[in-house]
């Protein structure tokens, strides 16, 4: 994992293939490692690799979208993990999407394209969670999954991705942590995200 991450310290994420490789190095490896630990400690059975990858992609790609404001405003400037192949269709510099009202429509279109890409992993990630047998391990991944999906709902069609540190409302986070026990709970929260406002505190 460390060797793979070191590769991306200097390497720009230009293509969708670069992005997928980065996700695989960072999060698929991490989730596989935590599952193997759970296998040793509580006898958890590892789901197939494709489902692990779907869960990892959902979580890490969501993080990439959500952290854009921090990445483009922090000094010294941080690395941008959005694939250039995608954002360069809209602007020459990704920073141009931040406060340029002329580009506001393009900014929203880009965010929506990014979120739509991530949503392709939801079905696989739900299959992943449904296969976790140990209740404690299930809660860890189900909460992680729901936080990711909730943040995607928050970011979709939202220009503020580029302008502030968006957060899910604290009471929503608390409900996810306290009430996510079974797959039925997961489905209830998914319906909630489809029908309720999840926008929350901004910094």
Describe it.
This is Squalene synthase. InterPro entries: Isoprenoid_synthase_dom_sf, Squ/phyt_synthse, Trans_IPPS_euk-type. Pfam families: SQS_PSY. The chain is mainly alpha-helical and 203 residues long. The chain has one domain: Orthogonal Bundle (Farnesyl Diphosphate Synthase), CATH 1.10.600. The chain has helices at 2-10, 16-42, 49-66, 68-73, 84-87, 104-119, 122-130, 135-155, 170-179, 183-195, and strands spanning 166-168, 199-202. A two-stranded antiparallel sheet has the order 1-2. α2 crosses α3 and α8 (135-155) runs parallel beside α10. The longest helix is centred in the first third of the chain and has 27 residues, at 16-42. The chain is globular and about 50 Å long. The model has no long low-confidence stretch (mean pLDDT 89).
Summarize it:
Helix content is 66%, strand content 3%. With 203 residues, the chain is mostly helical. It has one domain (2-195): Farnesyl Diphosphate Synthase.
């Amino acid at each position: 994992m460390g060797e793979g991450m070191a590769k991306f310290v200097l390497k720009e994420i230009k293509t969708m293939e670069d992005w997928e490789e980065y996700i695989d190095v960072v999060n698929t490896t991490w989730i596989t490692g935590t599952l193997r630990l759970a296998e040793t400690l509580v006898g958890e059975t590892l789901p197939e690799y494709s489902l692990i990858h779907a869960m990892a992609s959902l979580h890490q790609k969501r993080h990439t979208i959500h952290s854009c404001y921090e990445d483009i405003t922090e000094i010294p400037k941080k690395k941008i993990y959005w694939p250039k192949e995608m954002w360069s269709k809209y602007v020459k510099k990704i920073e141009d999407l931040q406060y340029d009202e002329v580009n506001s429509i393009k900014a929203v279109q880009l965010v929506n394209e990014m979120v739509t890409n991530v949503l392709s992993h939801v079905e696989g990630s739900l299959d992943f969670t449904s296969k976790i047998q140990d209740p404690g391990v299930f809660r860890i991944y189900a909460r992680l999954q729901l936080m990711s999906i909730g943040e995607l709902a928050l970011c979709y069609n939202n220009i503020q991705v580029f302008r502030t540190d968006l957060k899910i409302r604290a009471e929503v986070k608390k409900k996810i942590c306290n009430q996510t026990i079974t797959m039925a709970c997961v489905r209830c929260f998914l319906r909630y995200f489809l029908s309720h406002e999840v926008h929350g505190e901004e910094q």
